[in-house]
User: What shape does this take?
Amino acid sequence: MLQVNNITFGYSKKKIVLNSFNFTLNEGEHLCVMGESGCGKSTLLKAIYGLVNLKNGTIFWKENKVLGPKFHLVPGMDFFKYVAQDFDLMPYTSVSENIKKFLSRFYPEESEKRTQELLDVIEMKPFANTKVKNLSGGQKQRVAIARALANEPELLLLDEPFSQIDNFKKNALRRNLFTYLKEKNIACIVATHDKNDALSFADQLIVIRNNKILVKDAPKEIYKNPKEKYVAALFDDVNEITIHGKNVLLYPHHIKVVEKSNLPAIVLNTYFKGSYWLIEAEFENQNIFFNNPVALQKGETIALSFIESV
Ligand SMILES: Nc1ncnc2c1ncn2[C@@H]1O[C@H](COP(=O)(O)OP(=O)(O)OP(=O)(O)O)[C@@H](O)[C@H]1O
Assistant: This one.
């Protein structure tokens, strides 16, 4: 189990980035970390990997204490792997060689088998012999993930792992990777801006705000009962509006156009979203956003219905 006990860290004495962070993560469990840009997601991953010296608190993986660079010539924990935003690959060697770098040369057959398995996970078999310098940003990102997995770490730390990968590949890669990690019982912490990493694949979600953990729970619970607009906005275009004198948070799919109601609104804009339209409307002097199966006319008066439980 990972135990993060009351850790505090700042890059300078004046500015604290992680303020009294406390949480645990079980073996094989997946945790997502979300929050606005600059809130400290990457810093948390660095702290867990042992790349910074904590001001206060301790981190343990099972009975092993995570020690910062003060205590290690080569910082980082042996049973963790960390994939940073800058990948750190060997550009002049092939994709296969990059993955094999951390596998034992004494077991060539086993090493080849694992490399093929990981090329499958990242769907890069056709690029096995391509030099890394000739790959796109997203392809490099996939190789970095495979390389981190080569030695089967006990905990994988991923910083924005799919940020450079197109949507089509991203969905397939997410499914492959997280299924693979579960099969191998590899715990994982993902710092992300993408709600899909959290909603579909994480067991736990941490939201950071103002240098503190604002909430930690199952992603579904956080999505359904967002503590505040900041949290709901991580998932969708949330509306914070007053209805009948009551302040509520509503996701766009909680607002519907009906034939008749005592809640009229005027259409301001419509945005094509593929399978639906996002409508911006004025409701009691408040701008709201909701999903609709068809486009609506600018200036049109519509009747609304709200599903109040988010
Ligand atoms: N090496 C550093 N030296 C000094 N300050 C830093 C350093 N790295 C990050 N910071 C600061 O620490 C804070 C947290 O940064 P961090 O990179 O952890 O945020 P983040 O949530 O991962 O952001 P993003 O989502 O934009 O990647 C920011 O204010 C950032 O400017």
In short: The domain at 2-229 is CATH 3.40.50.300 (Rossmann fold). The chain is about 25% helix and 30% strand. The two ends are 33 Å apart (CA to CA). The chain has two domains: 2-229, 236-306.
